[in-house]
Amino acid sequence: MINRNRIGIAYSLTSFGESHGKAIGGVIDGLPAGIPIDIDDIQRQLNRRRPGQNALTTARNESDTVELLSGIFNGVSTGAPIGFIISNCDQRPEDYEEIAQAYRPSHADFTYDIKYGGHHDHRGGGRASARETACRIVAGAIAQQALATRGITITAYTSQIKDIKLDIPYTQLDLKHIDDNEVRCPNTEKAALMRQAILDAKQQGDSVGGIVTCIVQGAPVGLGEPVFGRLNASLAAAMMSINAAKGVEFGLGFEFATKNGSEVLDLFTNNDGKIRTATNHSGGIQGGISNGEDIILRVAFKPVPTLMRDIPTVRRDGTPTVLHPHGRHDACVVPRAVPVVEAMAAITLLDQYLQYCQQLGFKQ
Amino acid sequence: MINRNRIGIAYSLTSFGESHGKAIGGVIDGLPAGIPIDIDDIQRQLNRRRPGQNALTTARNESDTVELLSGIFNGVSTGAPIGFIISNCDQRPEDYEEIAQAYRPSHADFTYDIKYGGHHDHRGGGRASARETACRIVAGAIAQQALATRGITITAYTSQIKDIKLDIPYTQLDLKHIDDNEVRCPNTEKAALMRQAILDAKQQGDSVGGIVTCIVQGAPVGLGEPVFGRLNASLAAAMMSINAAKGVEFGLGFEFATKNGSEVLDLFTNNDGKIRTATNHSGGIQGGISNGEDIILRVAFKPVPTLMRDIPTVRRDGTPTVLHPHGRHDACVVPRAVPVVEAMAAITLLDQYLQYCQQLGFKQ
Amino acid sequence: MINRNRIGIAYSLTSFGESHGKAIGGVIDGLPAGIPIDIDDIQRQLNRRRPGQNALTTARNESDTVELLSGIFNGVSTGAPIGFIISNCDQRPEDYEEIAQAYRPSHADFTYDIKYGGHHDHRGGGRASARETACRIVAGAIAQQALATRGITITAYTSQIKDIKLDIPYTQLDLKHIDDNEVRCPNTEKAALMRQAILDAKQQGDSVGGIVTCIVQGAPVGLGEPVFGRLNASLAAAMMSINAAKGVEFGLGFEFATKNGSEVLDLFTNNDGKIRTATNHSGGIQGGISNGEDIILRVAFKPVPTLMRDIPTVRRDGTPTVLHPHGRHDACVVPRAVPVVEAMAAITLLDQYLQYCQQLGFKQ
Amino acid sequence: MINRNRIGIAYSLTSFGESHGKAIGGVIDGLPAGIPIDIDDIQRQLNRRRPGQNALTTARNESDTVELLSGIFNGVSTGAPIGFIISNCDQRPEDYEEIAQAYRPSHADFTYDIKYGGHHDHRGGGRASARETACRIVAGAIAQQALATRGITITAYTSQIKDIKLDIPYTQLDLKHIDDNEVRCPNTEKAALMRQAILDAKQQGDSVGGIVTCIVQGAPVGLGEPVFGRLNASLAAAMMSINAAKGVEFGLGFEFATKNGSEVLDLFTNNDGKIRTATNHSGGIQGGISNGEDIILRVAFKPVPTLMRDIPTVRRDGTPTVLHPHGRHDACVVPRAVPVVEAMAAITLLDQYLQYCQQLGFKQ
Lengths: 364, 364, 364, 364
Hints:
4 copies of one chain form a homotetramer.
Chain A: E1 2-3, E2 6-7, E3 12-16, E4 23-29, H1 39-49, E5 66-68, E6 72-73, E7 76-77, E8 82-87, H2 109-115, H3 133-148, E9 153-161, E10 164-165, H4 188-203, E11 210-217, H5 231-240, E12 245-250, H6 261-264, E13 268-271, E14 274-277, E15 285-286, E16 289-290, E17 295-301, E18 311-314, E19 320-323, H7 334-363
Antiparallel strand pairs in A: 1-2, 2-3, 3-4, 4-8, 5-8, 6-7, 9-10, 9-11, 11-17, 12-17, 13-14, 15-16, 18-19
Helix pairs in contact in A: 1-3, 1-7, 3-7, 5-7
């Protein structure tokens, strides 16, 4: 379920905050009581997303330190909502005087300005800034910890930057090495090429797009609710709510369109008494419900539209102007989007898992 | 917002029904009062989806006649919920005795069986059957009529079947000719090739996948709600809730991943006093909010998994068995999915439009 | 959760239909799979509410036969939504020509007319008619069956008609005798007095109000969700959504206002190893959460505003007019409201029970 | 709509925080853009609720200073969510060591302990503490400011303490004088008697209950959504979610039960071309929808269960014990509940008003 600034029914995040306001934060509701919460681990996930971590990312310097304000007592969840804030430290509103007057192309300046009658906080994109995704990391990291107690793990990695594709299936990759490089690609050679592609774009004042692949392992058969609350529908909404995401696919995804049915059936097998599928073209979801195989999805991100070049545009009143490069920006959002994709998958999975627990609990 | 068998907040559809039960139907809630409802037009949309309409579709013979039970008085919407049913006429439960015992690969038999502890109605897929999408057509057709009063139109067409791609941009197509052929592709030559590809697959007892493109025209600037209720997130959930849908993308979609930012910026122009974009790579959505340009999305469908061939599988108890071909099925779901994509877009757009009206109405 | 024509999150009813349209009905979503459904029992509850059952009720003759269209297979719930309709048989739209022109005092004619711009179905109150509560009975009866499998029972009875109060606590009443009389009061003497009060009012072309008391037994400790989703908040919303309901209270309710704290503390006791309270002034709810004692609530109903007398009023255009008595109406809604109160309590309890099962199921 | 720690659909508050944690706070979502926000006025409402303000209230010393973190720019709402926190300053967790071991009667200690498996934060009631209502004041004060721009005002006052009733109708009271006394009763004589009743109880280490009356003026015809989302159902849920609230009624409320229909019809009149009712027994709501008259409701509060006396109870393990008086508590919650009732009414009214704006906006 998505509604404005909230996602989830049984496990939900309601977030707030603008890029250059006092703080961002949110309320996490629905976490069952009794789950040990590792705050260091939440911070580790935040650090994977935070700006200024390496040469590939924006120079904006934010520690992204989360402060948990409620819902945890003696290190364990209480069932009460978890309120949290992340202060904005490196605010430079003066960097954004120009965009108070002119619309940056392919940004949200124009749509927010019209939608909200000129009352939005334009500084650094305000509410439309990807800075908001830090709140998702908090809710996602906590969801990952809860899911881990049920044996469910979520792993995302960079699988494409521009034309450099990691074509090796995830089953043949060592997913422990994702963070060995700045690109978050678990293959050293491809990672190096991807890194260079990003640096090349950066040098030219340009940017590049890419793809994040996400794998959910250990999900039981039965997550997802027919017919609108399908697991893939919920995951698609979660992914497409990430800034710069422009497409999402499951299993073979768009490749399915080019196939015959006979090529892509996932035949059932009896695996030592357990019914499994011999292949997993479907990406772990059948009829909108998890089938016990790994859930596989891919999210396409557009190149960030802020370029270190002069960009022609118009002002609010329609007169032409030119935006001059300054501010601090990523040349590619994909490496920092990796933990965000994990977070959104975790929030969705825990939400669906708790709804699935209704039936489990009722039978007791 | 999606929750189990309901979609939408301000305008919502709650649907029910199984493929071979007495009837399918639903409740439409939130339609404003005072909108003239053309029942013949709803039926026309239903006829575009119904089985047995031509050589490309399953031989199951269903008239798909909708009966509207409430919410309309003297031909005009009253603001009260619209209840409706569509009777199932051509029920042949005996065709499905086999699948009571064996799981059809890449169908929902297995996941439903485990999720619901063996209590689901397996006949013809039961609740998982695409027959349920007829209910979406009813809610979608009514939404299309309401949106039309605000100048918003929605058009979908088949843009790919297997490797046959309609590469011509929609702006150079005559979208009035979509229904001139059975494939619902607005280009005669491509349509003929696509039709043949489907018939070839059918002759071989096989099936094929494809892509539906959908264009929304006339939407104002401002539809969509940050940050989770983004227009693209809502549309993605709606599309991925359609049976057999495996991917969705907006504007350039996955192609964005291969691009530099400098190639795909949608620069602003002053078009006779109106701010527009010179290109529309973004597909009409910026920051999750409509920007007044055409909204463009594409949905990938997998080949239907029911083949007219012997298929090895397992029974509930894990023992191997072979499914023999019978029953009545489409060799390609895409032409019939075209009106379903339109319906899901219409439901989502009207839902977002009504939320957008809150701000409009408040200012009065 | 209430939203327009829907109630409930985990277990929900979305209803539709007008008093003199083709049919009323609804969709029940969220019932767990595997619960045997006794259709005769649903019909029995409907019969307790239906018009024309005895001298106290309106002469409108409706069989109120429910047709279940989905979600039940081989007599057992499947987890899929249950669609149902109840046809309107005894439609006499011509009885209502007068109210097309004039607003009946203390009815919804005026508010609906203004809210919906004159487009509502005025016949017999249309959507505002209490006929709609039949749909709640269906969802409630099914919820009662599901709750009964967990040992939870719900019983309502008439405890006041005009100034005739049943002052005996429910613990000293035999609640099996509620249906022994037409008033549904489990005390023969009071029932006779109440019956006479209703008949007296009827003879004078007048009507009377009253109170329904409802007892929930067998609920575990822990139902209800802080802080807004409190059990009493949910129950209050459910009760106040019933036609003609004007007040609701829990335990001592309004009497609490007149008390000292020292008079009304529910002291804890150790009852053979089980912690119980010695008294139950609170009505089974502490901090918004069930405490394992019986849940006690009372709902006040106003006298029905349709009188068999000439009533001065205004027409739509503001000119004065007089409504002349005709049509078919109850002189007191309370006896027929008894099963409706049970139904609303059952829907709410099952909804909360399923949310409570999330935590139960998660621990498994 | 209520769901766990959230209330509202179009305008919603999601709150968090425990009595003795770091801070309480919340997220307000759905406020239209362009509304000037007076922060001093929010603080004034908070001050009416805060502890330690006078002789009648608990000595706990909290400044209840709200910090608004987002959603407001240059003093005007932006349409983005408003995050806020209120720090807990006067934390004395050591006061609550005793209740870690023993259940306070008629408090939520027991129900929370069982529901959350012993993991709740027991200090000062934790999440169950009325301290949480400060967050509602913030969302309510902002809603009141928004409603005021549409001519809608909300006023609550103390109308009963123990057996001292203010029987004068609000139309004959000067509602500007509510805050002239500590009890918040707009009649000097009654206020003095009420004050004495509270001080008497306090001196005896006891507590007293009472009633708050709330009046909404200026609401248009048409607020409220059939059939479950009725205005009175939404308001009832909002009111019954307040700590210690045990009953709610509209217009004549429970008195309706004792009346004949002929005594309580609200006859229509033509008031200089505007259709009004001559009386307002219904309390401004007909068929669940506002009819343009003043909305009148009353909320009953139980005496606070914390007494300054020795109280026998049981420990977690069921062994008997005695609670000794200490800590800091109100002898009567009613005067401080007055602004909370206003806040809950304002949140509900704005939520319904925005839904009503959908139809208004659609017609434009």
